[in-house]
Model the fold of this input.
Amino acid sequence: MEFKGTRTVITGGANGIGRALAFEITRRGGKVVLLDLNPQALKAAGEQLSCPWYVCDVTEEAHLTSCVLEIQQEHGPIDMWISGAGVLSPDPTHAASANNDMWTRAWDVHVMAHVYAARCLLPTMLDRGRGYLVNIASAAGLLCQIGDAAYSATKHAAVSFAQSLAISHGDQGISVSVVCPQYVSTPLLGYDNDHVSDETGLLSSKDAAILICDGLEQQDFLILTHPEVADYTQFKAQNPEKWIKGMQRLRDKQYDEDGILKIGQLHRLV
Ligand SMILES: NC(=O)c1ccc[n+]([C@@H]2O[C@H](COP(=O)([O-])OP(=O)(O)OC[C@H]3O[C@@H](n4cnc5c(N)ncnc54)[C@H](O)[C@@H]3O)[C@@H](O)[C@H]2O)c1
Done:
């Protein structure tokens, strides 16, 4: 597919990967609409791109549905929906120690937000015989984010829902992609949006967006910005016990003396 002549809505579009995707899709000739919870960052991104933006909490189904209707009325049909909003929920102590509100928020942002979008958009997309649903999951959805059980579990669920969408509707004109990046220098990891990375394993959001857009143009189901993730996933499937042992060794390296997870530094240890 080509972005030229298409309209893409990007959630989490105010920052990081979502914002970089908005720039890259625009550069390739597509139109974008941004959704985010953060009004200041959203306005800044929308003004920089001269594109429409809507403040929206994607975990509120009624709010998300009314945004979709407003976008369709004001700007026309939505060709592609990218669920990019994401949150970390680091385990305070042990793997079950994040409270229920943290688990619910991770589930709502990473899984239900995409279910709500698909529920609202699929009838029209199926009528039109075309549409593209994209979820920015994570390598943690195939492997694991050490120190963030809620993130890992809900990103696995995000990958699973993408599989269900593709199996149910992939031959009805609906394209589906799930993006599983490893480390990208974004505000989520404590970097500026425009941080330029020259470190191994850490992509800038701009470079990640280029790779993701290449995968979307090819309509790949699974888009990996870090090809080594395919090797790790294969190793995990073939040697689950060895994989757990290796992850335990990695866990030991990832905490500093006070037991704090160095989230922005993790790429250096992989
Ligand atoms: N940065 C990485 O290394 C990395 C790696 C793998 C996957 N991801 C995933 O990529 C996606 C984008 O991450 P990022 O690093 O750009 O993060 P980011 O924090 O830079 O941007 C995420 C955006 O999502 C928005 N958001 C959060 N909750 C929301 C809600 N309820 N409604 C609307 N907007 C909401 C935030 O306001 C923010 O602007 C996330 O799903 C993340 O899990 C990131």
In short: The longest strand covers residues 31-36. Residues 11-12, 14-18, 36-38, 41, 56-59, 84-87, 109, 136, 138, 181, 183-184, 186-189 surround nicotinamide-adenine-dinucleotide (CB under 6 Å). The radius of gyration is 18 Å.
